[in-house]
Structure prediction request, 192 residues.
Amino acid sequence: VNVMSLAKDAKDELLRKYEAMRDAYRRYAGPTTEWAREQRAKGKADAPPEWLTQLAPPPGLPHEINDYLRGALAHLLQRNAEARAAWEALLARPKDQRQKRSTWAAFMLARSYDVEDAARAATWYARVRELAKEGFADALGLASASLGAEARVKLRRGEWAAAIELYVQHHKSGDPSASASVRFAVRRAFAA
Prediction:
């Protein structure tokens, strides 16, 4: 889909629908994300509100945006296999068709495995950084965030040296919260 070839009215309508879908998504995801993660980790999950199950990306979006949003909605609905399939489909597209959401998809793949499969999560977090180095857009700073996220995975696994090294890299990337994480990881390593 070439959004640029659409008439101005059609572009405006597509953008309005896209923003409405994202706003609805944020209403559910924003305040409950941490709670939902905890519920999943405990093997519990409340049913999402009916309106959320009806959300879908509006037709006419670029394929990579559509793939990403389908994955994000499925993930929010705790349909991890469906979410992963959408993000993997995005990453399987030719490079020139996935410049804007490749780092996002890889980051979300990592998050989807975070509790379930730490090794796979760590691999996807590293892939986020590779994609950013390859020139894929990283407007959200996910390459930097992936360092801290992967470090947490390593810390949970007791891989102290790897966790500390990742937190140090995270600190060097400019994240102000990383210095506290380095100290925490060092304390954990010495307490083990």
